[in-house]
Amino acid sequence: MAVFEHQGCQLHYEEHGQGEPLVLLHGLGSSSQDWELQVPELARQYRVILMDIRGHGQSSKPRSGYQIKTFSEDLLALLRHLDTGPVHFVGLSMGGMLGFQFAVDHPEWLRSLCIVNSAPEVKRRTRSDWIWWLKRWSLARLLSVETVGKGLAERLFPKPEQAELRRKMAERWARNDKRAYLKSFDAIVDWGVQERIGQIRCPTLVIAADHDYTPIQLKERYVALMPNARLAVIDDSRHATPLDQPEVFNQTLLQFLAAASTPQGSLSPC
């Protein structure tokens, strides 16, 4: 296990393979384990870097620092520590939000950007937005992490043949530190950088599951705001696309990375 300290927080990270650096970041309440079906494939061609976001996985659970911008600065500190230079970035859900923040704050550190089932803002503007937030906020505080994990697992992996995925997710979710989880959840609400994503110039791929929490139309709208972005929709998938459709996800990502990778001896496209 590799550990790096930034601002008093012990951040767990892993490295696999060789080649251009490729960062994979997980979502809220999860960890680097979410990428277990991607690492073997990606590490054949890339230097894959996994990090547990503060408050998650094997990283420490400090009492402060739970903001998307702070998570982004944690990542920057790690990349400087590892001397990676510009990286390809893939972020799922909250990891995608971190990716948007990183892209607008530190564009020189990106070769490419891949956002999976995420958005560049989470704003409470409408009555339905407030109802969604209140429901999630209440359930997260009233229920145990074990109960929340079981409910999410059933929603994300509803098919009979996905029983092992349900079991695995519920088991992993139960390991969450509730205080750190709630602080991370609160970090998402009212966060946003959508007004700045037109500045993102590097090759960008937005991957959307056809049954994600938010509609494809929402992704289409924000993809249109970025000058070098495109959308890929993966069928028969929900929010945890890398786990429920790993073969299609891996193929889609590898094709994008191949097109975005730096030809030998040339400069980064960003």
From TrEMBL:
Domain AB hydrolase-1: 21-244
Alphabetized UniProt keyword annotations: Hydrolase
Protein name: Alpha/beta hydrolase
Keyword Transport assigned: no
Keyword Hydrolase among record annotations: yes
SUPFAM superfamilies reported in the protein's UniProt record: alpha/beta-Hydrolases (SSF53474)
InterPro entries: AB_hydrolase_1 (IPR000073), AB_hydrolase_fold (IPR029058), AB_hydrolase_sf (IPR050266)
Pfam families: Abhydrolase_1
GO cellular component: membrane
